[in-house]
Amino acid sequence: MPDQAAQSPGESRSQAFVAVEGAVAEDIAGGPLMLGAYITIWVLLLAYVFRLARMSDHTQREIERLAKLLARNDSKSEQ
Questions:
Q1: What gap in Å lies between CA 59 and CA 67, rounded to an integer?
Q2: Whole-number mean pLDDT of the chain?
Q3: pTM to 2 decimals?
Q4: Is the alpha carbon torsion for 41, 47, 53, 56 positive or negative?
Q5: Are 4 and 12 a contacting pair, CB within 8 Å?
Q6: Among residues 43, 66, 62, 44, which one has the least CA distance to residue 54?
Q7: Cα(first)–Cα(last) distance of the chain, in Å?
Q8: Positive or negative CA dihedral for 21, 22, 26, 30?
Q9: Domain ranges of the chain
């Protein structure tokens, strides 16, 4: 076996196995993270649906306005 003094620190570490005792504890529990993710997704989804509803209402009002404008122009052109 080679002399320990002749080995570099990296080589000596790579040849020695040291078992870890006990489980590694998590810093953050998974439950609150998952709950936070679900809440975030639901808030974003509801905001998106609300925005779509507002855009749809705006489009409907614009269509009604244009229909009235066309009807007014048609009545003027018939006279």
A1: 12
A2: 85
A3: 0.56
A4: negative
A5: yes
A6: 62
A7: 112
A8: positive
A9: 4-78
Q: For 27, which DSSP code?
A: S
Tell me which of 62 and 24 has the higher pLDDT.
Answer: 62
Distance CA 32, CA 30 (A): 6
Q: Which helix (H) or strand (E) holds 40?
A: helix 30-78
- Please count the other Cβ atoms lying within 10 Å of the Cβ belonging to residue 7: 14
Q: How far apart are CA 68 and CA 74, in angstroms?
A: 10
Query: From CA 58, how far away is CA 6, in angstroms rounded?
Result: 80
Reading the block at residue 43, the tokens are 């808030």
Residue labelled with tokens 């679900």? 38
What pLDDT does 70 receive? 94
For the segment 39-60, what is each residue's pLDDT rounded down to a tens digit? 999 999 999 999 999 999 999 9
**Where do we find the tokens 């002399």?**
3
